[in-house]
Amino acid sequence: MTLASIIFALLGVVAVSGAVVTVFARDVSRMAMGLGAFLLAVAGFFVYWGATFLGVVQLFVYIGGVLVLMIFAIMLVHRSPDGSPLLETRHDVAALAVAGGLFFMVVMALRGVVPDSVNQGIESGPAELTEAFLGPMLTHFEMGGVLLLAVLVSVVVILGGDDR
Amino acid sequence: MSLLVITVGLFSLGLYGVLTRRDLVAILASIEVMLGSATLLLVGLAAAGTPVGAHEGAVEATGVMVIVLAAAEAAVGLALVISVARRFKTTRVDELAEVKG
Fold first, then answer.
1. Cβ contact (<8 Å) for B40 and A45?
2. What ipTM was estimated for this complex?
3. Which residue from A97, A133, B19, B45 could staple onto B50, CB 3.0 to 4.6 Å apart?
């Protein structure tokens, strides 16, 4: 067993454990911690595969932004006076059938496309990313900016609606 | 194969969470798991040597776009959650009967 496969397995274990805690935890703070572990493992995968810039963006935007935003939302809306768990799950069997069926179908459909080993790594870096965004993907870049502006306006409209 | 099983497994786990969770914040967290696993598969495919995109840097650019989309989704979603919590005093989807079909 090589060091690379050990790192891959460790990151996989952290990602799967974090996702399991996110989906099954009955306590909101544990759910947030699980999501943090999952996102951290995803950033670790990116760095491990050579997409260092993407890993840093993942760390800044997801863990520094989205997760903190989610914790703020949890603090704002979850006020349980008796401290009882607020998260519940229902319809387990049907949901399990749907999720399991999707897993089976996608794995069967893609098993010939996805290679067995991930050992090549990504060679492109921030310079290639900039060239892509200012060249062939300029429209995507601009659309991303417009989307973020629309999101900013939408959030102000949604949360300011009660004052009118 | 391990990459495929891990990423699709994580996506299915997120889908299971979306279908079974009864809290809006927990549903959003499950959606984040789904988005993260999809990005993971995309970058993993590129790292494995599969051509993704027509030019160099396309994979990282697409990854950044997915992260931007996820951030936008989380911002609007959490704003809606706070708005719903203010109006209905709950974030449990089974108690939000006004939009029930």
1. yes
2. 0.88
3. B45
